[in-house]
Amino acid sequence: MRFNNLSFMRIQFIKNIHFTRLLKINGRLREFNFRKMKGPQEELFSVDVSDDRGNRIMFQMQKDGNAWKITDQEVPKWILENDDKLNEAIEEELRNV
Questions:
Q1: 89 — phi, psi (to 5°)?
Q2: Distance between CA atoms of residues 60 and 28, nearest Å
Q3: Residue 41 has what DSSP assignment?
Q4: Cβ(69)–Cβ(61) below 8 Å
Q5: What is residue 22's predicted lDDT score, i.e. its pLDDT?
Q6: For residue 97, what pLDDT is reported?
Q7: How far apart are alpha carbons 9 and 61 in whole angstroms?
Q8: Which partner from 13, 25, 57, 70 sits 20 to 30 angstroms from 3, CA to CA?
């Protein structure tokens, strides 16, 4: 058999990471949904959660040094004050992937 004119195609698989965590914030369990997005220069997580009225709050977290930080400062204060819990949830999930 001759394989002189064969070309090979390289296929790269990128794992889709999405997960949900229940986090206790201000004495209440809240469901946070995380989805990893691959940007051209950086890696991001899209995060969404419901407020007390059921409205969805969506924001992004970006890796900054050794921690994931909220990029949008227009989220409610209760989210900003608990970014360490969100960072911990992301890091825990990435360790288990």
A1: -65, -40
A2: 22
A3: S
A4: yes
A5: 98
A6: 79
A7: 34
A8: 13
Q: Which single residue is written with the structure tokens 């986090």?
A: 23
DSSP code for 37: E
Q: Is the dihedral of CA 43, 97, 85, 55 positive or negative?
A: positive
Q: Using CB atoms within 10 Å of the CB of residue 39, give its burial: 0 to 12 exposed, 13 to 18 middle, 19+ buried.
A: exposed
Query: pLDDT tens, 40-91?
Result: 677 899 999 999 999 999 999 999 999 999 998 899 999 999 999 999 999 9
Three-class secondary structure of residue 52 per DSSP: coil
The residue that leads in pLDDT, 10 or 61, is 61
| Tokens (6 digits) for 18 | 């999405």
Q: Which two tokens stand for residue 15?
A: 């794992």
Taking the C-alpha atoms of residue 61 and residue 67, their distance in angstroms, rounded to an integer, is 10
Strands (E), 5-77: 18-25, 28-38, 43-50, 56-64, 67-70
Q: Hey, what are 43's tokens?
A: 């890696």
